Amino acid sequence: MQDTAAAGARAELAHLYRRAGFGARPDELDAAVTAGYEATVGQLLHPSGPDAGATATPPPGLGAAAGRPPKGAGKEQKRAYAKARRTQANTLVTWWLDRMVRADEPFGEKLTLLWHDHWATSIQKVKSAGLMLRQNQTLRAHGTGDFRMLARAMVQDPALLLWLDGPKNKRTLPNENLSRELMELFVLGIGHYTEDDVREAARALTGWRVDRVTGAAALRPAGHDDKPKTVLGRTADFDDQSLVDLLVAQPASAAFVATRLWHRLVSPADPSPDVLARLLSAYGPGQDVRALVRAMLLDASFRSPAVRHALVKQPIEYVVGTLRALRLGAAPEAIDALHGMGQVPFAPPNVGGWPAGSAWLTASTAQARLRFAEWAAGRADLAAVTAAVPAARIDGVARLLSVDSWTPRTRTALAAASTDPQRLVTLALVAPEYVVS
Amino acid sequence: MDTVTRRRFLVASGVVGAGALVAGATSRSWLDLIAAGLRDPRAADAKILVLLTMYGGNDGLGTVVPYADPAYRTARPHLAYSENEVLRLGDDLGLNPAMKGLHALWGDKKLAIIRGVGYPKPDHSHFRSMDIWQSGSPDAPVHTGWLGRWLDALPHDPLRAVSLGPVLPPLLAGSRGAGSTIPLKAGPIGRLTLPDGALRSGLSALARPAPGEPAMQAAAAVANADLFTVAGRMGSAVNGGAGAADPKRAQGELAAQLDIVARCITSGAPTRVYAVSLGGFDTHADEKDTQSRLLGEVDAAVSAFLAAVGRHPAGASVVLAAYSEFGRRVGANASDGTDHGTAGVMFVAGSPVRGGFYGEQPSLSRLDQGDLHVSTDFRSVYGELLHKVLDTEPGRVLAGSAADRPLGFL
Asked: Average pLDDT in the A156-167 region?
């Protein structure tokens, strides 16, 4: 009976680590079991002491320059710029992947990844690794605090402005791209504004320029429309910051932000009204993101077995979690795997971010997972598995990967591979029990 | 927004085909059904639909240009094409100068151009509008794709509908079954191959849902099974000839997708629906160059594809249809682009097609808040494709009477 209770506590903590991080290593889980659930939530959200892994992976120096060849550049020069841009982009992706793998405290990285998905911006159009890194740092700086401050910073973020045609939005003829996505995807959600609101809010966002050499965003007063605008029934001379304040203060905004994070951290099904009410009360008038996440992780609905394994590990989560569990670094093969599965950091498919759930469960992602699993199992030190007698290795690999338990199907498949640790771990990494979150 | 690809819509529309897959997957005959699919080649008279999604909102007025209408030039002076730039179609309309291949098809009467296509009460959001097009349901949000519902009406076969690229578009997600995906990239990741020996048998043991496991976990087992089916049946077509030297092969992402589709079709694959896509049509700025480049890519890829299947008997069965989630605003914005609009243009091409114009050209002087009026409901087009290409009663898949009003292009 006590064994069952201990296994239950361990499984609950493994679930917590999968959702609030990238999965636990066995030693992390051992420590968490000793500390208890609530203390572990506290430790994840408020890490104490310096993060040696993060310190060892400082951001690369990419400079501010936006990487455009000068006007009138020849073909050769343009090609050289394009090549340098690709190298920088690769440096950036490798850095973040390495940081996610090596950070001692995973929650900050996980939340930054969620915000990157939320404020989804792609280097494909921004064409500057330096500006994408700057955005990543803005997401880190404001991601755990007041959502209003995050939104205020993001509407002036050079990468986001370039991505959503902010610099093309002028007093004389507004461009609605940023205005629409700010309401639909970032702050309010569809259905909580009208087409007129989009047009009027676009006027509030006019006049911003991004200097392609310094990478700085600045307001050019001549391009800004400073006449009164009427947005959501309020008329004022809104600018970008007061517009954000107005949007964030709408009751729809809190529910939208909370539900969005819920879908990625807890369940694809919406929170029930009473759960949502608890989350909103934690988020509060200060739009406190950390308090919101804390309320989610401590809520009985999060700890319920009903939401366990209800999500699918996104490819980045899958790759980072595997590298962390097997103590491997961010190798080029890991980045190839992300390309093969269709999720590369800094290159979301569009402003709506990445899909979730069964979108990652297709023949082609299954194949990319298998390739990556073969590589990772071939690279890792599997002594912890090999040390056990073959019959004990099936449970050993469950412990290594923090999988609660194997179904009889998987147990049978793994048993046939128990004399070959490398094949055993490869199969465990593509087992349905490990692919879900 | 830059490229709006298929992936976003899975989230926006809440299409989650997995629980569903499981219902079919747990049936006793699951592996038997797969085996049946492998044994049965496509019947010789069964037609094939290739559906091209142009993500981002392709500007219809820059595609089929009303060059003779003075209101056109007035609304977008820097974007307008002149009479001697366009490829003349008749009716004072001309194709974008980049579409020479489709213009030749038009001359051969194998290209249908459907004008003013949309749906009632147009939505200006990419996501909502693409969701409407992919679900085939303008009136109420539904969580299945229109071709997913077609799949639902048939026994599960992962080869029946196939999407090119890693992520399944919602249009192929049903409530019981869903289409498959096949990878695109050349090289070790993109090759569709299974491991050998013990690893292969280990994987096959993981390719079957376990009783009582959570829905997503079961769906992960089904994905492993689909890999076996798809690699087994399509592997040689996908891998074979990748990078093979055909100097005339069109370049680009769409061309690569259609190249694989052509090889699957000519190798006798049982697949009835292929989904391909191209993104980047969201031309809020500098539209003329961008759109012309993209339409040129579409033109080259589609022409090369139809020529490739045309050299094979299966070519007589292939119908390609192209659509986008909306057209764009009539008036240009200050960035030499256009913002999100309403009615757009659809193309239907191929040997079984009766070429010509269908649907009324929307008026440029009678606008709805700066947008074109929709003259043709897209469900009329879908209904005809379901009936004439997929041999399915439209009412089984689409709600509303528009689906029962064929335009006559097939």
From this structure: 94
Q: Kindly indicate the confidence band of residue B394, based on its pLDDT and cuts at 50, 70 and 90.
A: very high
> Cβ–Cβ of A195/B124 closer than 8 Å?
yes
> Mean pLDDT lowest for which of A238-252, A319-333, A349-363?
A349-363
Give yes or no: residues A301 and A169 share one domain.
yes
The reply to whether B375 falls in a domain is yes
A289 and A321 in a single domain? The answer is: no
Residue B297: give its domain's CATH number. 3.40.720.10
Does residue A59 lie in a domain region? no
Span of A60-64, A108-112, A193-197, B139-143 with lowest mean pLDDT: B139-143
Query: Are B202 and A423 inside 8 Å of each other by CB?
Result: yes
Confidence tier at B27 by pLDDT (50, 70, 90): very low
Residue B259 in any domain: the answer is yes
Q: What φ, ψ does residue B10 adopt, rounded to 5°?
A: -60, -40
Measured in angstroms, the CA of A311 and the nearest CA of chain B are apart by 7
- Whether residue B369 is contained in a domain is answered as yes
Start-end of H helices in A105-157: 106-118, 123-126, 129-142, 147-154
Task: Please tell me which of the candidates A122, A163, A370 has its beta carbon nearest to residue B203.
Answer: A370
The C-alpha atoms of residue A421 and residue A414 are separated, in whole angstroms, by: 10
Instruction: State yes or no: pLDDT of A130 exceeds 80.
Output: yes
**B12 touches A: beta carbon within 8 Å:** yes
In a domain, A96, yes or no: no
Q: Average pLDDT, stretch A340-369?
A: 86
Containing structural domain, residue B205: 7-404
Main-chain dihedrals φ then ψ at residue B275, nearest 5 degrees: -110, 125
* Alpha carbon distance A397, A393 (integer Å): 6
What Rg do the C-alpha atoms of chain A give, in angstroms? 23
Burial of B247 (0-12, 13-18, 19+ CB in 10 A): exposed
How many domains are contained in chain A? 3
Which candidate in B8, B54, B239 is best for mutational testing of the A interface (most A CBs within 10 A)? B8
pLDDT score of A373: 97
For residue B3, pLDDT over 80 is answered with no
| Structural domain boundaries enclosing A7 | 1-46
Are A299 and A349 found together in one domain? no
Residues 308-347 of B with CB under 8 A from A: 333-335, 337, 339-340
Q: Which candidate in A18, A121, A341, A358 is best for mutational testing of the B interface (most B CBs within 10 A)?
A: A358
pLDDT of B400 reads 85
Q: Is the confidence at residue A345, as pLDDT, over 60?
A: yes
Total domains in chain B come to: 1
Q: Is A77 helix (H, G, I), strand (E, B) or coil?
A: helix
Does A109 map to a domain? no
- pLDDT band at residue B241 under the 50/70/90 scheme: low
Consecutive H or E run containing B114: strand B111-118
**Pick from A13, A42, A12, A9: which is nearest to A28 by CA?**
A13
* Residues 349-388 of chain B whose Cβ lies under 8 A from any Cβ of chain A: 369
Which residue of B123, B164, B168 is the best one to mutate when testing the A interface, meaning the one whose CB has the most A CBs within 10 A?
A: B168
**Both A322 and A297 in a single domain?**
no
Are both A164 and A280 inside the same structural domain?
Answer: yes
Same domain, A299 and A325: no
B409 in a domain, yes or no? no
Q: What is the pLDDT of residue B157?
A: 77
pTM: 0.82
Q: What is the pLDDT of residues A282-298, one digit of tens each?
A: 999 999 999 999 999 99
In whole numbers, what is the pLDDT of chain A averaged over residues?
94
ipTM reported for the complex surpasses 0.90: yes
Under an 8 A CB cutoff, do A352 and B10 touch?
A: no
What is the rounded distance in angstroms from the CA atom of residue A266 to the CA atom of residue A276? 12
Q: Are residues A302 and A319 in the same domain?
A: no
The number of beta carbons lying within 10 Å of the beta carbon of residue B250 is: 23
